[in-house]
Amino acid sequence: MAGLILIIDDEQDMQIYLRTLFRKAGYEVAVAKNGDEGVRVAMERRPSLITLDLLMPGRSGPHAYEALRAKEETREIPVIILTGLSNHQGLLAKLPDGVPGPDAVVEKPIDREAFLAQVAELINA
After folding, report:
1. Which residues of the chain fall below pLDDT 70?
2. Residue 122 near residue 78, CB atoms below 8 Å
3. C-alpha to C-alpha distance for 113 and 119, rounded to whole angstroms
4. Quick check: pTM over 0.85?
5. Model confidence over 66-99: pLDDT tens digits?
6. Computed from CA positions of residues 4, 10, 11, 12, in that sequence, does the dihedral angle turn out positive or negative?
7. In this structure, is the dihedral angle defined by the CA atoms of residues 80, 86, 87 and 91, taken in order, positive or negative?
8. Of 72, 75, 77, 116, which one's alpha carbon is 20 to 30 angstroms from that of 44?
9. DSSP the chain
10. Are the CB atoms for 53 and 64 separated by under 8 Å?
């Protein structure tokens, strides 16, 4: 396997789509349905990469991202924000000072080939 990817997304259709995409590309996949579960799974499994939705119930994507970057065990894991929001910059601009931005932001719908190339580049960096 090429590594473990953690999908943090509350939409079941997106979970299924990404899980299928990553498995066909040879990755192992873990799924979390909200930010709290995602942070917990990231701490337990230490994935090679995380995809993170911005809008979720409970702990939102930006808050989950902030928590991931605050923890020594997860701060170096590459994170790709996946969003259907065209104005996502406003949500990410609210990150506290000193919290670096995500490794990439990908807007839905996803260009599969470009997205998989970006995933491979971040995992192999």
Report:
1. 1, 85-95
2. yes
3. 10
4. yes
5. 999 999 999 999 999 998 766 656 556 666 777 8
6. positive
7. negative
8. 116
9. ---EEEEE-S-HHHHHHHHHHHHHTT-EEEEESSHHHHHHHHHHH--SEEEEES--SSS-HHHHHHHHHHSTTTTTS-EEEEES-TTHHHHHTTSPTT-PPPSEEEESSP-HHHHHHHHHHHHH-
10. no
Q: Are 6 and 47 in contact (CB under 8 A)?
A: yes
Residue 94: phi, psi to the nearest 5? -85, 0
Amino acid at position 30, single letter: A
Query: Is-contact 69 99, C-beta < 8 A?
Result: yes
- Among 75, 42, 36, 81, smallest CA distance to 57 is for 36
